[in-house]
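During the reporting period the student researcher (J.K.) took over the structure-prediction task from the postdoctoral fellow and processed the backlog of single-chain submissions. One of the processed entries is reproduced below for the supervisory committee.
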Amino acid sequence: MTDQKNVQEQGARKVSRRNILKAAVAAGGAAVFGFPNIVKAQGVTSMRWQSTWPSKDIFHEFALDFAKKVNDMTGGDLKIEVLPAGAVVPAFQLLEAVSKGTLDGGHGVLVYHYGKQTALALWGSSPAYGMDANMLLSWHKYGGGKELLDKIYKSIGANVVSFPYGPMPTQPLGWFKKPVTKSDDLKGLKFRTVGISIDLFTGLGAAVNALPGGEIVPAMDRGLLDAAEFNNASSDRLLGFPDVSKVYMLQSYHQNAEQFEIMFNKTKFDALPAKMKAIIEHAVEAASADMSWKAIDRYSKDYIELQTKDKVRVYKTPASVLQKQLAVFDAVEAKKSADNPLFKEVVQSQRAFAARAVRWDLDTNVDRRMAYNHYFAPKSAKKS
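J.K. obtained the following structure tokens:
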């Protein structure tokens, strides 16, 4: 009797556990009485994105890096696929495509939307009142930029959620047939740039043509451009600039504080669970830091190889040209502010932030040139 009773009790326990497991499955995998979560109730959300960069550009790699972070951090619950420029729409049509839902999101820069609202170019396409790109991102998050960006996008009916990230170093003046020694050397040049830089270089006398990254070198090769700027040593090298020019002018105020933009279709983003939205926001900041670290590593290597392997001659933009850029931008700013209240509002906000942030930065951080010369410059240079 005892053995039979034990068998019956064991059978009852098995049935009870089986029923509990069935109940857990029916409940969508919720843990019941300490049993593990064995079934996921929520399905996978897939998004199709496009970058504004050719697949060979390091910028497209940055876009893929962000997508991977989100895919990994959500455990695969959100899967972002990133296509290169032109896969669905041309690079300069990204905002419209994301807003309409043709694409779920994208990776680019705000200055590419200059034609929709000129104030958008102030996120990178200006001297930024002495700020670098990381300081401008600080203004965006803590100085009122985010609220202004939302206001601008609403003013043009853009159905998007935007996350500026990824501080870029000062961009070169560009690639030329011969060194630029004075601002008059720019007069009459068929030159590529974007954003407010169009107005700035037009003010310097250049004939400007705005082209996306993948079209610049072919245009220079065919003689449609005399000179052009893009962004950095790695991108410029990958896109083939050394094949069409051997003169590389470093330093400029036309885009010394630019950053990237991660963009979601607002309807699609708003439909995501709160937890997933939080993961995305934190992934943006993680990707921003990682991008800047990767850029230092890769850009510095390609900067050396431009000179050693590609035989490019590097020159520093003369101070007189930089000073002229600032003077021209003053006139551009005054005109745009008079014509566009939102442009003026962004300018006032950036200037107020820069007045204290740049002063703090200049007074606080030591000039790295002395230390660099101490460790790496030839002895003759140290004495001079």
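The committee noted the following: Residues 174-257+311-362 form a domain with the D-Maltodextrin-Binding Protein; domain 2 fold (CATH 3.40.190.10).
J.K. will present the remaining backlog at the next meeting.
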